[in-house]
Amino acid sequence: MTDILEVSGLSFAYPNGHAVLDDLDLRLASGERVALLGPNGAGKTTLALHLNGIHRADAGSIRVAGIELDDDTLTEIRRRVGMVFQDADDQLFMPTVAEDVGFGPANLGLSGAERDARVAEALSMVGAEGFGPRSPHHLSGGEKRRIALATVLAMRPDLVVMDEPTSGLDPAGRRELSDLLAGLDHAQLLITHDLPFALEVCPRSVIVSQGRVVADGVTAELLADTELLAAHRLELPFGFDPSFLTGRSAA
Amino acid sequence: MGAGHTHDLHVPGDSIVHRTAPEAKLVAAFVFVLAVAVTPRREVWAFAGYAVLAVVWVVASGIGPRRTITRLAVILPFITFAFFLPFIGGGDTTDVAGFELSTEGLWGTWNVLTKAVLGATTSIVLASTTPVPEIVRGLERLRMPRLVTGIISFMFRYLGVITAELGRMRTAMIARGHDPRWLWQAKPIASSAGAMFVRSYERGERVHAAMLARGFRGTMPTFDDRRAEPTDWLRAALIPALAVSLALGGLLT
Amino acid sequence: MHAPDGFLNVGTAVATGALSLGLLGMAARQAGDELADKQIPLAGLSAAFIFAGQMVNFPVAAGTSGHLLGGALAAVLLGPRLGALVVAIVVFVQALVFADGGLTALGYNTLNMAIVPAFGGYACYTFFRRFLPANRSGVVGATGLAAMLSVVLSAVAFSLQWLFGATAPVAFDDVFGAMVGVHLLIGIGEGVISALVVSAVLAARPDLVFGARDLPKADLVGEARVPARVFVAGALVASLLVATVVAQFASGDPDGLETVAEEQGFAESGRDHALDSSIFADYATQGVDNEALSLAIAGVGGTLLTLVVGFGVFRAVGSTSGRRLT
Question: Are C102 and C9 spatial neighbours (Cβ–Cβ below 8 Å)?
Fold first, then answer.
């Protein structure tokens, strides 16, 4: 299986000199779901913003489906990498859901029936058929998150990157989202603090700290390593039974 | 005077006015108001005609007289001013119930009153029967620059988000006993407004990033599915056409 | 000041409309160059901020409240061009979607509420900056003064339009005196609030304040040393001074201006002075021989009177409507 994402030697510092990413390497196979874990300020969101060229690296390279990210391939990479932002209100900026989901396809040059078909396809993938004419402002948190996902699915990406997908969701909304993500064929990189969610959705996890990958492995095994978690300010919820993890990792 | 409106005036419905294409309605409203504005104030019969047309519009749109009249309150400050005119105006005077009132002033009152009420009623019918995205689309089809319609769209999308954030800040202040009564106690509220500007601006930057992530290259795409049919224009043209003939009648006599 | 349809004559509406469109077109082109493709989301969010800012109630006196107009504030935060454009869009939308302000009045409403306060306010801002220290206090103080004057400039602009487009027989200097007097007081609130808002933005993100771009970041940190109470007192003194000057101007040669208007055929009505019957008329105080002095006294007296009456009204309204907590 070919790697859909190859990040190598990625480094990035803000203009004030603060290094956020430090020689970071990461690979994702197509169709793979990976959780990106790490403490606040570890560089997770900055990494995500690099993946479709919102930020440009100081050093290192990013290849998506074998295509190197540069000025000429920017548009192509942005189509292939779907980025779902943390605050769905930032992502849903058009007056109606249909226009929001159609925004990406429109930028790809689609119009008319072809674009409408993309919108319908994406809305049905997230179980939001019939949401088209509604205003994003009046959706619930869970609905907003699903529509935000639809806005990138409409571009038929190879890789979906989500920043804190479960923040602000109620337990039911969270479960709906995990079912939805587990059912998608796309490669997914999920940035999250929600360790049980990572365990549920992603077989593999990567821990990033101070701009570098410090651990990469089977999610259940990483989460069972209490010393590793403590070293990087990661904590399982109170009452979470570690033996459940061992059971999962054996299975 | 610009305070107090958090929600647009749109009233969902399926009246003939609701169903007319927005660009046709925009043009109709503008032509009607223009006809009213150019009519010399002494052509009382023409204004009577406009009033009938405006009432027909309100009835046809099914928005109800109470809503219309409540909304007319926005012009109250100017109406108040208009009622001063007979007292402060100069020139010939007329005796009204024992008061020596300026004749020109009385005509001034009449002029401001009728034109303001007719103009505001027209805007109310337009705004009540057309949802904001439709108004924006209508403007786009009338060739308003995409830059402006884009800004309007974004403004409406985030107005509610920002007011809600401001409301939460306000609640947090009240919860801690903040109840300013004098201008120099306004600092916490003004500071929250400043914080709001920073948040709005930063949200603007994040929205821009989200747009770039979906392939935005500087031009807003159009989502124009419905164009005004000839029947839309015909339907919308009826009332302004009558108004224009009244105005012409008034100008020529 | 969202004037309704037919408030000024058609000629004035068309002329101000053309002027506004031209100026905004220019502003949009130049602002577009500054922001590149970020302009649509950033200007949209800024417009939403100004719109929301106009809905925030600020305490004025004895528990009553007022709200921001925002023209000068927008100019200091976003620059005069983008600021004017953003506030003009707010005015336009208020007419179209909220029926607030007439459609045929858009020309002069845009001019008075967006273009004049933004460009005029920013001109005042740069002027005051010259005399104030090049630091945070200077930026905040200049914003306050500029915002206050921007409201007065709007009133002046409206009065001038009345000169050419009056629809009722009220003389220019009456309208001018009343408008400027009232707006001096409104301006105090506008100045205080705008200054405080800019001060708060400087504290968080000094790089976002267009009007402070010339200053290094180090000069923008720390507390501004202009307590609001001092500012209110200063603004009162300033408004009394302006009233003195305005009174001179109002009496100076109003007929000259009006004669021009008449000769040009603009002044359809409004040529009757009717000083005797006017409630705002005759600034000169009787019994003082020196005309200039007498006018100055009248101006100051008028401002103080407005203040007292205004305060009385606030008090009365405040006590009947009770204290507002929301």
Answer: no
> Cα(A12)–Cα(A20) distance, rounded to whole angstroms?
6
**Would you say residue A111 lies in a domain?**
yes
Q: Please give the Cα distance from C5 to B34 (Å, whole number).
A: 9
Put simply, the answer to whether B114 touches C196 (Cβ < 8 Å) is no
In a domain, C5, yes or no: no
Residues of the domain holding C143: 10-321
Tens digit of each residue's pLDDT (9 = 90 or more) over B223-246? 766 677 888 888 888 888 888 888
Q: Find the DSSP H helices in B89-227.
A: 103-129, 132-141, 146-175, 187-213
Q: What 3 state SS string does C155-206 have?
A: HHHHHHHHHHHCCCCCCHHHHHHHHHHHHHHHHHHHHHHHHHHHHHHHHHCH
Give the number of domains in chain A. Answer: 1
ipTM computed for the complex: 0.87
| pLDDT tens digits along C11-45 | 888 899 999 999 998 888 887 676 667 778 888 89
The CATH number that applies at residue A235 is 3.40.50.300
Tally of domains in chain C: 1
Domain that holds residue A221: 34-45+83-250
| Burial (Cβ within 10 Å: 0-12, 13-18, ≥19) of residue A35 | buried
Residue C65 sits in a domain whose CATH number is: 1.10.1760.20
Count Cα atoms within 13 angstroms, Cβ side, for C169.
Answer: 22
- In the prediction, which pLDDT does B2 show? 36
Residue C52's nearest CA partner among A103, B120, B203, B71 is B203
Q: Would you give the distance in Å from CA C143 to the centre of its chain?
A: 13
What is the CB neighbour count within 10 angstroms for residue C307?
18
- Judging by beta carbons within 10 Å of its beta carbon (0-12, 13-18, 19+), is residue A174 exposed, middle or buried? buried
Residues of B in contact with A91 (CB under 8 A): 210
Tokens representing A88 are: 């769905």
The answer to whether the CB atoms of B148 and C280 lie below 8 A apart is no
Residue A219 lies in a domain: yes
Whether residue A54 lies within 8 A of chain B, CB to CB, comes out as yes
Determine, yes or no, domain membership for C1. Answer: no
3-state secondary structure (DSSP) of residue A189: strand
**What is the CA B166 to chain-centroid distance, rounded?**
24
Q: Identify whether C266 is part of a domain.
A: yes
What backbone torsions phi and psi does residue C161 show, to the nearest 5 degrees?
Answer: -65, -35
The answer to the question of residue A229 being in a domain is yes
> Among residues 56-115 of chain C, which lie with CB inside 8 Å of chain B?
56-63, 67-69, 77, 85-86, 89-90, 92-105
* Secondary structure (3-state) at B217: coil
Q: Domain for residue A207, yes or no?
A: yes
Q: Could you give the CA distance from residue B5 to residue C233 in angstroms, rounded to a whole number?
A: 32
- Judged against a pLDDT cut of 90, whether residue A138 lies above it is answered with no
